[in-house]
Amino acid sequence: MNAPARAGVAAAFQRELQHLRRDRTDLMLVTVLPLLMLALMAWLFAASVMRDIPIAVVDLDRSAESRLLTRMLDASPGVSVASQPATLAEAQSQLRRLEVFAVVLVPRDATRQALRGSQGTVFAYYNATYLTTGQSAARDIADVIGAWNTRLLTGRIGQQVGPAKLRAPPIAVQSDILYNPARSYEMFLLPLVFPAILSLGLALAVTASLGREVRDGHLREWLGTTPWAAITGKIAPYVALFSLYGALGLLYLALLRGDGIAGSLTLLMLGQPLFYLACAAVALLFVGLTRDMGTSFSAIGLSLGTALAFSGATFPVVDAPLFTRIWNLLLPLTAYVKLQTQQQFVGAAWSVSLWPLATLGLIAAVAGGIGGWRLIAAARAAPAPDPVQARA
Questions:
Q1: Between the CA atoms of 37, 38, 44 and 50, what dihedral angle is there, to the nearest 10 degrees?
Q2: 40, 68, 210, 322: which has the fewest Cβ within 10 Å?
Q3: What pLDDT, in 10s, does the model give residues 181-229?
Q4: C-beta of residue 69 within 8 angstroms of C-beta of residue 148
């Protein structure tokens, strides 16, 4: 970079810092508000794992074994027996009122059938409209019933037929949880929510900063003779600031709440400025194409504001419509989430993460290049300021 360009970057950087010092509202929006949002999200998900989900148990068997099952369910940390209605209809009514999220039905003679050598059945119903809560309750119910089954098999049934006649199933399934063994919702959601919030905040801040020059008619004066340097200097404070927030959020999750970093901390730190630079480039693209602050804000909300839903981390994009898959590939958050998962949780080889890093760089270059080119073209097409009016 030559001397005029370096001077242009420094001048634009200082000019933006001066604006933030003058405008306390803009300063609060890029300092206090993001940190408050991160702190709020961290507090909301601090419980980490769902506990004591209310369920109902309908015990039509009324045997010692079925009462044992009820006690085991209530003792489970994941669910809590909130009610024991006499009929399934009453339990379903509680389910519709959202008083419970799952119902366990022990049919009449279920344990007697098991003790006689035939198969008994215990039914579990869960509310799938509250998918996460319902599935968590169903998983804990299945674990408890599995433990109760083993206890029943080795206890009462073993005493009746003799231990020598007990035979395990010929094929057993052993499933192991990888990378989030505690099934923590904090470790699942916060690594997604933190960058989603920060990327949206940065894009809105950059859009306001760039749009302000267009709105106030200062575009030509601001870009001057080194337009690319002026653009770089203007967005640099925001990229640096939000990269710092991203790094702090990452270290909080990995070192204070999680099990450390399985892969490369260097790649994760490199991904911070690349990710936020790509998001700033998207904001530059919308401002350059529309040259209107309000329209650009709307475009940011529709794209980066919904990025979490289209990133593939919460809702799968496998076999999704073509538009969804293309949109998924165009979002900076998609590439960053892959990088973060590979290096923070999975411990992938560094070469695997070069692709998401390159994707972030490509988004920054293409989106920023098109947006900057359109802004520069608009500045050159604008009439030069009248020196007489300027002196007046």
A1: 140
A2: 322
A3: 677 788 888 999 999 999 999 999 999 999 999 999 889 989 988 999 9
A4: yes
